[in-house]
Amino acid sequence: MGLGLVSALECGAEGIDFSGDAGLPVPVGVVFGLLAGSVLVVRRRWPIAVVLVSIAVTPAQMGFVMGLVGLYTLAACELPRRIIGALAGMSLAGTMIVTFVRARQDVGHGHLTIGDWFVPFLAITTSLGVTAPPVLLGLYVGARRRLMESLRERADSLERELQLLAERAEERAEWARGEERTRIAREMHDVVAHRVSLMVVHAAALQAVARKDPEKAVKNAAIVGDMGRQALTELRSMLGVLRAGESLAHHEPVPLAAVGAAAAAAASRAVGDRSADAAQDGPTLAELDELVDQSRVAGMVVELSVEGVERGYPAAVEQTAYRVVQEALTNVHKHAAGAKTYVRLARRRSEIAMQVENESVPDGEGESARLPSGGNGLVGMKERVSALGGVFVSGPTDAGGFRVSAVIPAS
């Protein structure tokens, strides 16, 4: 609006001289100049019309501001370059012709005494001076504006992508935390089920011999105490990992999308690291003899046979094999107390195989301990083995017993 007012005032003032040259009344020339100069107000909406008006009033020697601003606005707009070039060329040609004619007239009237070479030089330099700078500046500003818009769009797109990555990373971290909780739940089930089952068996034996054989009763009581302490130690260890996972899960989120993605990915890695550490700290096949001895002390008849040379398997493989045997022995304590049990382990180069089979339950001995069952033991064993790409099979035998078999790849 301000430039439009300046242009109108300029053209109105120049309309005084125009009215004298054209033989028109001064008010008519002033009104004509005001109307022509006020066209600059619509330069942003119709820049082509403004440039055409400035070219049209060039012979009247008015519209200097309108011409400069109009060409600048035209070059900065989102218009094809051929249109900008054509209008700029028309303005250049019009200014050059008018300047040439006016200079020739001044020379003819004796107002200029310089040589003939000065007229075309003046026409060329004047037309270039009032046309080239606004056009070049407008092209630069338009290109810069388009570049900034492009960068802004790319930044918005990148922010959306980062937000999406953050959400996906948080989903992966939540999935990893869920897997960690599931693993800890399996570990807690194995620890509680096995230790408590043995404790119940020993407690039943303690109750039976408390009066008849005090020495044996004291021995059974000591075993129950040791097993209880072992169970508490293992439970504390796993609960500590679980609390650490919950603390990480409820950590305050950082509002930046990129930092959120990195934090979520770090949470996922941290959960994975804890899982790996837990696997390293878990039981191994070297402790299998101790596990079988615990069942023997509880009164179970167990035969252990191991085939193959001792090999170094990954910690997760050894822990899973140990837990399968442990849970199978626990099930024997629960459902087949007194039955003879066979534990077979085969160490191979590419895999490790195990089998726990119990004979049928002797009459009158299957319900002596009255151990409850949650029904999750076989499911947990199958999940453990399948997670490592192994095969798990369980079911009753033809002789009335029960067999649990598993094969786990070594890598």
Automatic annotation (TrEMBL):
Q: Which molecular-function annotation in GO is an example for this chain?
A: phosphorelay sensor kinase activity
Transmembrane regions: 22-42, 48-71, 83-101, 121-143
Coiled-coil zones: 141-172
Top-level lineage group:
Bacteria
UniProt entry tagged with the keyword Nucleotide-binding: yes
Query: Gene3D superfamilies this protein is in?
Result: 1.20.5.1930, Histidine kinase-like ATPase, C-terminal domain
- Answer yes or no on keyword DNA-binding: no
Show the Pfam families listed in the entry.
Answer: HisKA_3
Catalyses: ATP + protein L-histidine = ADP + protein N-phospho-L-histidine
Name a GO CC annotation attached to this entry: membrane
Question: What Enzyme Commission number(s) does the record list for this chain?
Answer: 2.7.13.3
The alphabetized UniProt keywords are: ATP-binding, Coiled coil, Kinase, Membrane, Nucleotide-binding, Phosphoprotein, Transferase, Transmembrane, Transmembrane helix, Two-component regulatory system
- What protein name does the entry list? histidine kinase
- The record lists the organism as Streptomyces sulfonofaciens
